[in-house]
């Protein structure tokens, strides 16, 4: 029986993970569920999944949860970042699903990695922020880092298991990272400035949290994924080609020196990569049905339009610049997306804010997590001031 901690249980990845776990009560038990401040959904999840711990990042929400949960349920309520780190690193825990959105996920995900857990990484922002240091922490503790992002999980499945971080040894020529293109792939450029948060969050193929939905619409999601792939598979952006594939059935591909291209296909359903990570190297039912390729008929591929969607280029440039540039990129993006969702910023101003933040906060060496957290906080402040000036 494997004990699972679920960071970000009330979110889109969190709920999909619980769906898979509930199909295999003989294999997995829920040790802890965590959320930011959504008390009602957390109460429902505690009744359904009976974790030993429930953690609310927000202390007021934790107090309310503790008051409202019946003592007889046997759930201990913890709060704050310490609570998150505690359930991510507890001795009895085998698997940690890292599904908090944004930089807030870095500390608890790092705690799981340092404690040598199987870390199922959905929280791409954590790796974008701390790349080399995070991978070092994984290597030092012997943690098992398995990608849950559908593209990275696909690449992982297309690589030989003993050469995941050794593209040369595996004979890899390049990685083909697929992208849906998001909801505005065909929207006239002139209309992009006036798109609404509702339109941006209405992804054609995937149902996801708001932040990643906006990232998919700006293509920053692909930019963050490009950086994520560089760290996970020990390669550079020059060896990764983004292919827009509007059907979202091929989740990514690996091309080898002999010309072979291996691909992983499946319905756009996150339960597939989640089940893959939970059971790896075994296979378990994810609740995902068979794919009807006859119904689908054909696959399309297009080059990404980097003039229309500058975020992809901004991300690749930040990775190449190195040091804390990706920290600034990520922080400014989180701030700009929040401002857009709140109605304070135009969609087309998101890359403008990021570019200005990158210009004004020069990267420094990412020599410690302290530096990363400092630079992150500074970049968020800077980005808010740029948003205010822009508005
Ligand atoms: P979501 O917004 O649906 O859920 C986020 C979860 O994080 C919630 O449980 C929320 O309570 C928690 N949370 C938010 N802020 C927090 C904070 N400050 N402290 C502690 N907890 C906090 O997001 P999602 O779509 O499930 O995405 C989660 C992560 O997985 C993101 O990094 C995203 O990029 C990645 N991801 C998601 C998908 C998807 O299909 N949704 C696919 C690939 C990768
Ligand atoms: Mg993805």
TrEMBL record:
GO terms for molecular function: 1-deoxy-D-xylulose-5-phosphate reductoisomerase activity; isomerase activity; manganese ion binding; NADPH binding. GO terms for biological process: isopentenyl diphosphate biosynthetic process, methylerythritol 4-phosphate pathway involved in terpenoid biosynthetic process. Pathway: Isoprenoid biosynthesis; isopentenyl diphosphate biosynthesis via DXP pathway; isopentenyl diphosphate from 1-deoxy-D-xylulose 5-phosphate: step 1/6. 1-deoxy-D-xylulose 5-phosphate binds at residues 124, 150-151, 180, 203, 216, 221-222, 225. Residues 265-381 form the DXP reductoisomerase C-terminal domain. NCBIfam families: Dxr (TIGR00243), PRK05447.1-1 (NF003938), PRK12464.1 (NF009114). This is 1-deoxy-D-xylulose 5-phosphate reductoisomerase. The lineage of its organism: Bacteria, Pseudomonadati, Pseudomonadota, Gammaproteobacteria, Pseudomonadales. The gene is dxr.
